[in-house]
Amino acid sequence: MQTAAALHVASSNAGNRPAAPSVPAARETTAAQAHAAQPTVPEAEPPKSAGELFVTFIANDPTQVFAPSTVTYHAAVQSEPVDPEWGPAAAAALRDFFNARFGDRFEIPYVDCRQNLCELQVAGRLGGDSQADMHDAQTAMNDMKRQPWWNELQIDQESGIVATSPDDRVLLLWFFSRK
After folding, report:
1. Fewest CB atoms less than 10 Å from the CB: which of 25, 35, 133, 152?
2. What is the b/e burial string over 121-137, where b = at least 16 CB atoms within 10 angstroms of the residue's CB?
3. What does each C-alpha distance from 99 to 52, 60, 137, 172, 178 come to in angstroms?
4. CB 83 within 8 A of CB 114
């Protein structure tokens, strides 16, 4: 049985165009169309590990015309043989310095010291305060030069970058050389 409103619509449209569907039918069509038109929401990707965040800074990508200098520095570290007396001691000093100063506030996914060169990767934790992390990490890099082991290990030059990852973690990629 049709309602009075539906009969009125049908009679006023007679001869002009087809009768409009009843209100419940229109709602059903709209609901079905809306359900079909909803885009599928992709699942969020899990956050990258700290080590994965450094790949863009150290990977040799032949499509990059102007590769970052860190690619060259990383390759130089990797090409050196390991000095068994200096390399492990230097790597331990770098790692121990950050761990003593910050505890588990930062991740250190990679420390590698070879014959005359070292590479240090430090990443802030997910959900950390990126501004405070950046400031404190840079201050630590400056204070590192005042540590007794700095001269004992004959560390001479250093170069690095500080960046922020897409998930707002602070990244330090630093290279060191000995005299």
Report:
1. 35
2. bbbbeeebeeeebbebb
3. 21, 30, 12, 15, 22
4. yes
Mean pLDDT of 22-35: 49
Beta strands in the chain (DSSP E): 106-113, 117-124, 155-164, 170-178
Please report the pLDDT score of residue 37 as a whole number. 56
Spans of all domains in the chain: 4-37, 51-178
What SS3 class is residue 63?
coil
Whether 22 shows a pLDDT value over 90: the answer reads no
* Residue 77: other Cβ atoms inside 10 A: 19
More confident residue, 26 or 160: 160
- 160: nearest Cα among 109, 114, 121: 121
Beta-carbon-side half-sphere exposure of residue 96 (alpha carbons within 13 Å): 9
Instruction: Say how far apart CA 174 and CA 73 lie, in whole Å.
Output: 9
DSSP state of 3: -
Nearest to 147, CA basis, from 85, 107, 92, 67: 92
Selection from 104, 98, 105, 102 nearest residue 174 by Cα: 98
Q: Can you tell me whether residue 58 is helix, strand or coil? A: helix
Instruction: State the Cα–Cα distance between residues 145 and 94, nearest whole angstrom.
Output: 11
Looking at residue 40, its pLDDT comes to 60
